[in-house]
């Protein structure tokens, strides 16, 4: 059984994890015409804004209640009210998603009560959905904020179906984890639609952060799932959750609507995708399309081609728990040894990691444990460690700011797994050192030994 330990250092050195409010804000960016609002200081929001802009290379809608020292002590009602009224007046959103931060959580602001008071004072806001989620940044991590925001969206916006309401055949709810990219969501949508199903993703950053150029500028999110589509998710026939972090949201959906769910902890690798495809075939009642039978065959061939380069390789990986299992589990399937695994927060999936120990720590811990490894896996903040260790570096997760196309990386499905084999396999191949005349070791023959011995008289 995998041993889970927590770093006991006095401070974090080169942080691996990102805060809950950023995860919650990103989830809200998957809702169409939404304005995420961080209830905290301007600095918190500025940091998150810069991080998202560097990763996605897009304009990012993100506002703040701009709490000062005095406002924090006295309470933030006035700041929340002013922020909501200004946002509605200037940007005309369908929804405002409010994420708390450390300073307001320590103060104990009751934002749900604030919202009730604001609605009574401002009836003109009745058409705007106001969703609040508690995401203190002094605990938990990025994927926790995403998970909590998604759960609140389900609880606040999904309508309970009336008694006797029939399910809409072919409608499928999909709750993707924060470790999936916009490219991953596009791939999953194509797979699901090939079975004749109509998926609704919540959140859906494939529509809002996929790097397209909109016809018209909007200060809010310009894509994603709409508030009306979220409300109608209660009439679907099934829910698919991807990543253990989405279990609470799936359970909330089931409790609210009675829709059963299936959770997949990872979708990178042959066996996980076999299970996923079989599930879709069962839900739809249709056979697996020939396209995906061929993609499966291509993946098996890629595994045969690549296993020579993967087998026995030692890998150090640092990522959020669901990403850690997704990539770490696949690398182990390919024959690699996970010698060092560092993550950001506790999760039930850590027990499933194919390694002896998982450390909740930082990138310094990852670098220390990566001595002598063949591959380092983390987000862009791990690049200096890879350079110092002189090992190949695979960038995954968020942020990736020193390479193009981070939003379009695909690692799910048969095709995504196949391409990931080629990407990592090529890193291993590029790191191979071919022998040359200066490094060839010539066998020593008895004649050479005799001739090399000086004569004695």
Structure report:
Residues 19-427 form the Nitrogenase/oxidoreductase component domain. This protein has helices spanning 20-28, 42-56, 69-74, 77-91, 102-107, 111-121, 142-157, 182-193, 205-208, 227-231, 247-257, 270-284, 290-310, 321-333, 363-369, 383-389, 413-430, 446-451; strands at residues 3-6, 34-39, 63-64, 95-100, 129-133, 171-176, 198-201, 238-242, 261-264, 314-318, 337-343, 357-360, 375-378, 393-395. With 457 residues, the chain is α/β, with parallel strands linked by helices. β6 (171-176), α8 and β7 (198-201) form a beta-alpha-beta unit. The longest helix is centred in the middle third of the chain and has 21 residues, at 290-310. The chain is globular. The chain starts with a strand and ends in a 6-residue tail after the last helix. The model has no long low-confidence stretch (mean pLDDT 93).
Top-tier CATH class of the largest domain? Alpha Beta
Note the quaternary state here: single chain
Distance between the termini: 69 Å
* Principal-axis shape: globular
Number of folding domains?
Answer: 3
Helix content: 40-55%
Tally of alpha and pi helices = 18
